[in-house]
Amino acid sequence: MPDQPFVEIEQQLFAASDGRMRVLGIRRTGQHAVINWMLRNCGRPDTVFLNSCTMRRSATRTCGQSELNGKFCGKGYPLKRALEAYLPPEKSPFVLISYEAGFEQGEISPNFPDAAFDHNVLVTRSFVNWLPSFIRLMRLMNHKSAPEALDISNGIIFEIMRYKAHLLAAQETKHVVICFDNWAISPSYRCDKLKELGLAELDNTLGEVQRYGGGSSFSKFSKPADELNLTTRWQTMADDPYALDFLRLAHADTTFMAVLAAAYPGDIPIMGQLLAENG
Question: Dihedral of CA 160/162/163/169: which sign?
């Protein structure tokens, strides 16, 4: 079994941990800002964060990056060795594991039984603010391709379908759901979610712009988090015919629009306005 060398260290981490949570979202839903906020408010001196893991595989082996007490660490065997040195008997870290492929039922974290997690957290974001951020990410990731190349378009359509499935899962789940748009603008909303998660209110700010994914889609690290226009990204699509093509495709999908209207009713008039002005 390819994950076998990591079973023992993950069982040790599970046994030593004092608090375990999972965060599930898709790329550009703002979940790294939410995760950092959760870690800042967990109330434990020691924290382990395994980022962007592969579902139903070893989190240690497959995580995109990791942090031990806020410091970047590796993955796979380097992370295994770091955890072995990190976990003396007196360490009881708060452990947070994240996924960026939507939500799935069942045992998605081998060696961490589902019932052992204090909470699963689904992070969502309004479609009109998510779409331009994701399109920008795809263009940056495929910088050798033309800005409207088919490979970029294929990736965007795939992620829109994942967005749709994740939003539907968030509507049907009993787990904690955090709307990034509300989280970004409302300290009281953040405070309420801390209570729902059983976390202390130690630092209810937006924190620093996170390094994952290159920081903010539009300004990277040039602006602090509290100066980012996180809930008005949709305005950038007015002058982007390529982005409007995807907005038009989503608007024509009646099932998608029904799911979106239930979660983000404010998106519907914005989509109508953008499409009417650029028909």
Answer: positive
**Assigned token pair, 233:** 């990204």
Question: Which pair of tokens denotes residue 13?
Answer: 């981490």
- HSE, side-chain direction, 13 A CA sphere, residue 18: 13
Q: What angle do CA 163, 167, 173 make, to 5 degrees?
A: 140
Residue 179, phi then psi, degrees to nearest 5 = -85, 115
Q: How far apart are alpha carbons 98 and 1 in whole angstroms?
A: 23
Instruction: Please give the order of strands across the beta sheet that includes 20-24.
Output: 71-73, 65-68, 47-51, 94-99, 20-24, 119-124, 176-179
Distance between CA atoms of residues 260 and 252, nearest Å: 12
What are the respective helix, strand and coil percentages of the chain, to the nearest 5? 50, 15, 35
Q: Which residues contact 209 (CB under 8 A, 6 or more apart)?
A: 33, 215, 216, 220, 221, 223, 224, 225, 228
**Interval 6-63: pLDDT, tens:** 999 999 999 999 999 999 999 999 999 999 999 999 999 999 999 999 999 999 999 9
CA 148 to chain centre: 25
Cβ atoms of 93 and 149 within 8 Å: the answer is: no
Contact between 208 and 32 under an 8 Å Cβ cutoff? The reply is: no
Q: Tokens 């998660």 correspond to what residue?
A: 197
For 161, half-sphere exposure in the C-beta direction (CA atoms, 13 angstrom radius) is 5
Q: pLDDT by residue (tens digit) across 165-221?
A: 999 999 999 999 999 999 999 999 999 999 999 999 999 999 887 777 654 555 544
What is the distance, to the nearest Å, from the Cα of residue 40 to the centroid of all Cα atoms in its chain? 16
